[in-house]
Description:
Elements: H1 3-20, E1 23-24, H2 25-33, H3 40-52, E2 56-63, E3 66-74, H4 76-100
Antiparallel strand pairs: 1-3, 2-3
Helix pairs in contact: 1-4, 2-3
Domain Transcription regulator PadR N-terminal: 14-83
Protein name: PadR family transcriptional regulator
Pfam family, one: PadR
Amino acid sequence: MDKQMKKGVLDLCVLSVLSEEDCYGYQLVEKISTAIQISEGTIYPLLKRLQREGLLTSYIRESSEGPARKYYKLTPEGVAKYKKLRKKWFEFYNGVNKLLGRGDEDGQY
C-alpha cells in the first residue's frame, strides 16, 4: 500500500482495534498487520501522539510471559474521534468506489 495512503488511515486502524479491546503496542502491530503491513517503529510514535491528544490512556499490566506491558485504552474522546473518523472513512470509501466503478480488488473488470 502506498505510504501516504497508509499514513492517512493508521489513526483509524489503531482506534478501531482499541475500540474492541485494550492492547499493548506489539499486539496492535500484530492485529493491524493482518490487514496492512506496519512496523513497531510506526506504531509507537502514533500511540504517543494519540495519547498527547487525549484520545488514549495507558496503564501497566503484569505479564506471565515476561516484563509488565503498557496497555492502551480509548478515552471517551477517543471513542468519539473513532466514530467520527469511521463515518468519514465510509463516506470517502463509498465516494471513491462510485468513481472507480465495479472493478475487483486488483482493478480488473
